[in-house]
Amino acid sequence: xxxxxxxxxxxxxxxxxxxxxxxxxxxxxxxLHELENPLSLWLTALDGDTVAGYIGxxxxxxxxxxxxxxxxxxxRRQGVGRALVERLLWELAEDNHCLTLEVRASNEAAxxxxxELGFRQAGRRPRYYQHPPEDALILRxxx
Length: 143
Prior knowledge:
The protein is of the alpha+beta class. The chain has four helices and seven strands.
């Protein structure tokens, strides 16, 4: 498994994972736009040519926001998500001082992972998610 910057060749598989994992998935055009966005950093975990997972962020004025993280079902519980978050933190550390994210309040596994990596709750967004309706916890890691 290797983690590399997202490339055009990864977009179709990432869009498929978006559809499989999220009720409001990003489409291929939106993902392709991120390749051109100088504020964005997207990383892809690859097993050969297969996208095992991906993570995306945007950074402005020293603060970053993690927008998307997903791991393919066949690769879950193997450390892929942790490796992606750790690599993103490492990549962002030189030019940024914090990373925030939103996570469904019911996503206990993700919350536990983020807390293990040093994220702390910074707030709550009522009814942030629409399908199904649910609050988001705002988590933040400073370095």
